[in-house]
């Protein structure tokens, strides 16, 4: 009997100790950490909302990004990481009210532009219908509406010198929903492609380009989107012998890049969604372009297909086919037209050679960055830091095809840079192309705001692959990325942090981590000022 009591007591003590050690203590610790500690990564005058227990990693802890296999502290939160990430103080930095000169467009200007477009469309449509009737062409006529509250208008009006959209702009999810469901009223080649073939005015394009199958679609409220059809299955890896410049464009890479860009808080990629398109009803039958009609055909398997009519030999082998009409694709929301918001295309200083054995200077000269730093526009302002942000973004996705980048001319050298065309990312999950990181590893500089967000995403409670998986759950074409691609993101993120770590060891924190978002948010005119350490 006594022995039984002893055993019972011993068991209870063991259970209590385990409880104390594994449950109570960690809880107490997390409560202790959560109280009163606010973001200390930035300057003390940064306005941050007080959120419960969401401590921001300190810059001094920058090496403390947790190893990937450390899952012991992972909370079982049932997939709410994305919500917690966006509630984090780092994603709630209050930016100042934007002055009119900091916005890309003014309401009246855009309204006027929109009105003109609608009346031009109506005139053109009337004429086309008459001609089509005479020539026996069957076109589906769709109603168009002039909607001053259209989500694409709100997107365009929200573009500022800091980013393409603000973090909590409800117009962005609305625009994604609209692009997913709105009737398509017309389909055509994109302007850049027409310019390449000499078929349209080159002043209307940033750069004649377009060696890929892509189309411009117009929705019934005049929203425009760039459609890139699915060319590769999600689980196919780019073959080893493929050069990056003959690699296919991937629609899911475009979609994933938008989500990644938003999660990194860059907001430099226009909103992109997936959509299952009926290529007969939503492209062939709504196009007024005879050249586009001419590339449609029915395959031996009775599927509707179309092919890219490019400058080089483009044959039916390069076609994409529906099943029998349905085809997945990405829809990227169009930026405002060049006549109201001109953009400039600038060669990437770390451009690759687009020949079989060519090499660029950055590949052979370890001091290449010193030259770049002395060259306009990289010799002042934040352009070089933005290029480094872009290289981190591209390294995470594995995109080696960043030959140019674009900027809005309105914001001059201080504006952000656009991350357009991300379709060549996510080709290989089993390989990390570290040369994409050359701007970071050669210049050894990174914005502190970028670094703290990367550190946050390396922590188990926000893990990049988990927030990406969650974010893309809302896309109609989910799953957007296969698991190996998601896990590659975590692995690559660790590599970025290690590259920064190596730089800090060599040059010291002050040289490498460049403070941004430094000035008070109280005075709008000095909202963001970059202090370069050199
Ligand atoms: N969302 C968008 N809104 C407006 N214009 C866009 C958008 N996305 C891309 N463009 C324009 O179209 C051009 C070509 O797009 P993209 O690079 O995706 O196609 P591409 O066929 O790969 O071209 P390239 O051969 O030059 O790489 C871009 O340089 C840009 O000027
Ligand atoms: Mn491209």
TrEMBL record:
It comes from the Eukaryota. Mn(2+) binds at residue 421. GO terms for biological process: enamel mineralization. Residues 296-513 form the FAM20 C-terminal domain. The keyword Manganese applies. It is found in: Golgi apparatus. The keyword ATP-binding applies. Pfam families: Fam20C. Keywords: ATP-binding, Disulfide bond, Glycoprotein, Golgi apparatus, Manganese, Metal-binding, Nucleotide-binding. The active site is at 401. InterPro entries: FAM20, FAM20_C. Its cofactor is Mn(2+). ATP binds at residues 228, 332-335, 406, 421. One of its GO terms (molecular function) is protein serine/threonine kinase activator activity. GO terms for cellular component: Golgi apparatus. Belongs to the FAM20 family. This is FAM20 C-terminal domain-containing protein. The lineage of its organism: Eukaryota, Metazoa, Chordata, Craniata, Vertebrata.
């Amino acid at each position: 009997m006594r022995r039984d009591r002893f055993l019972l007591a011993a068991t209870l003590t063991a259970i209590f100790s385990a409880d104390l050690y594994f449950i109570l203590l960690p809880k107490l610790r997390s409560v202790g950490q959560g109280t009163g500690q606010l973001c200390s990564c930035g300057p003390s005058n940064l306005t941050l909302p007080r959120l419960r227990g969401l401590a921001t990693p300190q810059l001094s802890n920058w090496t403390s990004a947790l190893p990937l296999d450390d899952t012991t502290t992972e909370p079982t939160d049932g997939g709410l990481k994305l919500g917690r990430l966006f509630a984090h103080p780092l994603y709630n930095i209050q930016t100042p009210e934007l002055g009119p000169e900091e916005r890309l467009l003014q309401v009246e200007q855009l309204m006027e532009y929109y009105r003109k477009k609608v009346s031009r469309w109506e005139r053109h449509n009337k004429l086309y219908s008459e001609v089509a009737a005479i020539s026996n062409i069957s076109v589906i006529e769709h109603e168009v509406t002039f909607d001053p509250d259209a989500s694409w208008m709100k997107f365009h009006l929200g573009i500022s010198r800091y980013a393409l959209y603000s973090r909590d702009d409800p117009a962005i999810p609305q625009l994604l929903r609209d692009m997913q469901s709105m009737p398509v009223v017309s389909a055509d080649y994109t302007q850049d492609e027409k310019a390449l073939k000499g078929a349209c005015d080159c002043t209307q394009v940033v750069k004649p380009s377009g060696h890929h199958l892509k189309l411009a679609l117009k929705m019934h409220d005049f929203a425009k989107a760039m459609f890139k059809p699915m060319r590769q299955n999600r689980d196919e890896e780019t073959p080893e012998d493929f050069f990056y410049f003959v690699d296919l464009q991937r629609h899911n890479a475009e979609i994933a890049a938008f989500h990644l860009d938003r999660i990194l808080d860059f907001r430099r990629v226009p909103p992109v969604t997936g959509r299952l398109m009926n290529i007969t009803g939503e492209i062939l039958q709504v196009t007024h372009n005879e050249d586009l009609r001419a590339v449609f055909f029915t395959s031996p398997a009775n599927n509707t297909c179309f092919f890219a009519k490019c400058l080089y030999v483009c044959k039916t082998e390069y076609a994409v086919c529906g099943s029998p009409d349905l085809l997945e694709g990405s829809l990227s929301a169009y930026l405002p037209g060049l006549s109201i918001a001109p953009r400039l295309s600038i060669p990437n200083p770390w451009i690759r050679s687009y020949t079989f054995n060519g090499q660029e200077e950055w590949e052979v000269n370890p001091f290449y960055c010193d030259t770049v730093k002395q060259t306009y526009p990289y010799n002042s302002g934040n352009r070089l830091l933005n290029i480094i942000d872009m290289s981190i973004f591209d390294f995470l996705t594995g995109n080696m095809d960043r030959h140019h980048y674009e900027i809005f001319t309105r914001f001059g050298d201080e504006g952000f840079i656009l991350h357009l065309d991300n379709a060549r990312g996510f080709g290989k999950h089993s390989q990390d192309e570290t040369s994409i990181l050359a701007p970071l590893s050669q210049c050894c500089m990174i914005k502190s705001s970028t670094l703290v967000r990367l550190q946050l995403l390396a922590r188990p409670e926000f893990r990049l692959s988990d927030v990406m998986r969650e974010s893309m759950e809302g896309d109609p074409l989910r799953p957007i990325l296969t698991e190996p691609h998601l896990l590659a993101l975590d692995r690559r993120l660790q590599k970025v942090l290690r590259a920064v770590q190596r730089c800090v060891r060599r040059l010291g924190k002050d040289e490498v981590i460049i403070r941004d978002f430094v000035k008070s948010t109280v005075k709008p005119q000095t909202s963001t000022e970059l202090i370069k350490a050199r």
